[in-house]
User: Fold this.
Amino acid sequence: MNNLALSVALATAPSTAFAELRERPRFWFPLLLLVASTVAIIYWYYSTVDIEWLKDAMFSNNPDVLKLPEAERAARMAMLSRNTLLWSSVIGTVFVLPIVFLLSALYLLLAAKVTKLPQGFKHWFAFSCWTALPILLSTVVAAIFLIISDTAQVSPGVLQPLSLDELLLHRPFGSPGQSLLASLSIPSVLSWILMIIGVRVWSQRSWAFSAIFILLPVVVLYGIWAFVAFR
Amino acid sequence: MTRKQWIAVGVIAALIVIPVVLKLARSDTHKAVDVEHVTLRALTPTVLASGSLTYESQVTLAPEVTGRVTEILVEEGDQVKREQLLMRLDPAAPRAAIEQSQAQVRQARLSIERRQVDFDTQVAKVKRFEALRSQGMVDVNSLAELVSARDLAEVDLRTSREQLSQALAQLRQAQEQLAKTEIRSPLDGKVTAIYVKVGQTAVPSFSGISGSTLVDVADTTSIDAEINVDETDIARVKVGLEARVVPAAFPDKTLMGKVDQVAIAPRQQAGQNKSYPVRIRLTNTVGVVFHPGMSCRAEVLTGSQDSVKVLAVPVQTLRYEDNPDKSSSAEKSVASVFVYDGSRAVKRAVTTGTADDSYIAVTSGLKEGEQVIVGPAKTLLFLLDGEKVNINVKNAAAAKK
Assistant:
């Protein structure tokens, strides 16, 4: 099964796809596809957005920034240029995405060792990359949003169009908990579902085991994040 | 395609289409704006400056001699007359100096008496020897010695007289020092500040140390505002112009006045622009509870167009952008406003004229009765040409009231 067929299989027959991945673990295709598509959409967004409007939106809703003296706030705003935002986001994506997959793979490897699953690091790294493919859905929707938008004053939320915040809540950018709600998205849920199916296929154990295996760190991570964001 | 594949495609399509539809449904939102009609108005150009209120005539009394403060005869707020005694410094040292000088005067007078006797004796001797010499009874040398002694006695007498003058001068100086221990008011007015206490040492000094200033006395019958006008505005400020002064302590009270004095030389404090002190004589200060040094804000009316009404818009409606025409005759920036056309904000280039604090004249680009968008400030800042807007009903109702 080639990479394209494997991608389609993840959507139509995930058990078959994970069985294939168990036999032939590989990660370059999803990793490069995700990094390239994310970088492209970020570049597009920051190249076209009304940057002064964006800076105002970023600062005017952030309580930490609002506490600062006027002069310091103005200095911080002046430091943020289009290029600064664009390249920091692009470079961040290029480094952060692989690191996130790496950390995910390390957790899965550790959990596998504890639960006596036989797969090694390469398996789990490939597992992390492939199960993150639903992020592509967000990229496609974000691109459509940018095409249909008739103004340059586009909220950064457009980069996460399938998030809980963007779909339902619409909290102001930079407000408390906004980044947490923006990270909870349909692609994340799809990724977790794929991961649970994948663990079940690879471990041949129950759904409950697979769900705990995947969701335990998610619950802990979001629990801490929510505590910090909303306390 | 299998059924499973169709379902997968359907789910993916739904995940793409539903957010797009939701987004499109939400994007039909109008920004709420405040509008104002373009009307004819009389503008009064002003120069704004800040400063402080002060009495027209105010003096700070400083000690001219060093001495301990022994008595303070007034309190802050007391009305005083010219030459009224305000406080006393310890007179012991000047009195001792006077006694010393008086003794020196007496000594100088005695010295004169003594020298006078000596001189008279020498004169008599010379006369006697001259008579004897004419009879050839004494030699020439003896007479010459006596003449010399007489001349020396005369010099000694003059020296003693000069010593007396010197002693008398020292006596006068000591008496003046004694007089300076009594601090008297130089004018009719009010004591506005007392800087020392009984027992404190008054010290003549320019360095502003404690005890170097004693008391402030001011003529409270007339109050001035002393403001600092920026160098870019000073050319428009002239003696005689009317001014409105608002003390910081009474933000609702406007005092009227006239420019009385415009400084020739500027003042410049570190980190600030050059400014010129301007003194405004206030005319209606009756009933104002005044404390000298109160901060105030002043508007000097630099031109009155009471009879000429022009089309004007609030100053905050104007947006300035770099002029794409870079030729030397072109303005560096072009002004524009957003006109509300019933559903959208339409950007319109305008040319502007004189302005006051609130309104600016528009000489072209707008017609009377059109509605310009005046706020909210943040909405106006990021408003785009052609953007859908609607009138903020709440603010419009409040404005009508």
In short: Chain A touches chain B at residues 8, 11-13, 50, 52-53, 56, 60, 137, 140-141, 144-145, 148-153, 161-162, 166-167, 186 (CB under 8 Å).
